[in-house]
């Protein structure tokens, strides 16, 4: 099974974190639905050209969060994710991204007004692009 995950080896973010964030997003957005069999640790490591240890850590972290379920001898599956957990996970990804953006803005001494205006401009631009591509 092909999973749409892309890693950036030049990123300061660790590979396991890049993969974990993207896999979590695929699960909480229901792009990978309950019961979906994921590639084995070895297969996904080969697909993403990273170590088996990296994928094992990702699978263990997501299993600890209740998003994955591993059955010995059968494989790793997307777990049943309740609406409350899905909502918390969905929003936590956005909060994490906003916190990183705010940190970057504060490092270069942006004001609250500048950051608010930047966010609004980005939202408008993304919505316009989404509408013109027929997505919204």
Question: Would you kindly provide a written description of the structure presented here, covering whatever features stand out?
Answer:
- The protein is mainly alpha-helical and 136 residues long.
- 60% of the residues lie in helices and 6% in strands.
- Helix 2 crosses helix 3.
- The longest helix is centred in the C-terminal third of the chain and has 25 residues, at 83-107.
- The mean pLDDT is 91.
**Helical amount:** 55-70%
Spatial extent as radius of gyration: 18 Å
The class by helix and strand makeup works out as mainly alpha
Summarize the main sheet: 2 strands, antiparallel
Average pLDDT over all residues? 91
What's the overall geometry? globular
How far is the N terminus from the C terminus? 29 Å
Main sheet: which strands, in order across?
A: 1-2
| Oligomer status | single chain
User: Which range does the strand content fall in?
Assistant: 5-15%
Number of helices: 5
Unreliable segments (pLDDT under 50, ≥5 consecutive)? Answer: none
Strand runs, count: 2
Order of helices and strands: HHHEEHH
């Amino acid at each position: 099974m092909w999973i749409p995950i892309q890693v950036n080896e030049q990123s300061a973010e660790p590979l396991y974190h890049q993969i974990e964030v993207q896999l979590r997003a695929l699960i909480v957005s229901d792009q990978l639905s309950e019961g979906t069999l994921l590639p084995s640790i070895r297969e996904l490591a080969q697909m993403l050209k990273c170590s088996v240890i990296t994928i094992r850590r990702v699978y263990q972290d997501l299993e600890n969060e209740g998003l994955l379920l591993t059955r010995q001898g059968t494989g790793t599956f997307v777990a049943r994710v309740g609406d409350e957990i899905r909502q918390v996970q969905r929003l936590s990804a956005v909060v994490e991204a906003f916190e990183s953006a705010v940190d970057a803005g504060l490092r270069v001494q942006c004001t609250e007004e500048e950051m608010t205006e930047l966010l609004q401009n980005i939202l408008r631009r993304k919505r316009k692009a989404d509408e013109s591509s027929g997505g919204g």
